[in-house]
Amino acid sequence: MNESVSNSMTYGNVEGVDKKISRVVMGSMIAHTDRLPFTFEMFDDFFERGGNCIDTGHIYAGGASEKAVGAWIKARNVEDDIALIAKGAHTPNCNPEGLTSQLHESLERLQLDTVDIYMMHRDNPEIPVGEFVECLNEHKNAGRIRTFGGSNWSRERLQQANEYAAQKGLTGFSSSSVNFSLAQWNEPMWDGCIAGSDSESKAWYQETKLPLFAWSSQASGFFTGRFSPQDRAEAMQNPQIFEVARVWFNDDNFARLKRVQKLATEKGVGTTQIALAYVLRQTLNIFALIGPQTIEETRTSLIALGVALSPKEVRWLDAGE
Length: 321
Prior knowledge:
By secondary structure, this protein is of the alpha/beta class. It has helices at 36-48, 64-76, 96-110, 129-141, 155-168, 199-208, 232-235, 239-248, 251-267, 271-280, 295-302, 311-319, and strands at 11-12, 21-22, 24-27, 53-55, 83-88, 115-120, 145-151, 175-177, 212-214, 286-290.
């Protein structure tokens, strides 16, 4: 451990996982077998700062991301210290057969016998939810996964899954991963994605206390200050900002950005730190996924852990009241 690295990480728990789980989770889309030194440097730094949860996906970089994560875990001998999220069964392989095949392949790539949390990367409403619950319980009982959840599953389907599990005496979904940020999107970033930032979803997650892993918690960099309403005209011709504009450019979000900028100035921190603190200060069992591209981006993101926001400030950032 580098003693010069400040450790202000906070932790939570997910039923079925006997490890504390860092409230800030490192995404692994940056990880690749073609750049292992960079991958190791990023994960080493995150781990030194108290981060112990990494999010992976079967489809990331065609498997190269999982292989890179597995290589780092093995090289650093941190299997017992890391809470690993693996995701699979993405469309069009979102069925019990695809789930099983991809889980076995992920374990092989990761060089692990077990993953802590296995997330279905998508849902397939055409398949009865009980079939997924039965399949996931089989893998849990076989020791391949400690617990499981749904990424981009609606709260209705999550509820149905857990009602089925309760009726059958099985383990239900212990967590969820949907988009959650201060910004409200115009449309999903990718097909089949679901957001949980609306008031009805917030109320449901608060009532159920289901752990929520918020992906794109910083709204694809919308709150960095790089964007303004004047960029709308340019967005259609500029591929570098087109996707951000398509998903996040709207009047309400630019109003939120102004409030973020004002509060950041008052508190002497950056705008992205206010936006991430907004997620972390929700009265939910929430974990924030980040996707830094550099060590400096990791460092500045984690400053949000120390940014205090009152309930009134949280409401004001979102609704201006």
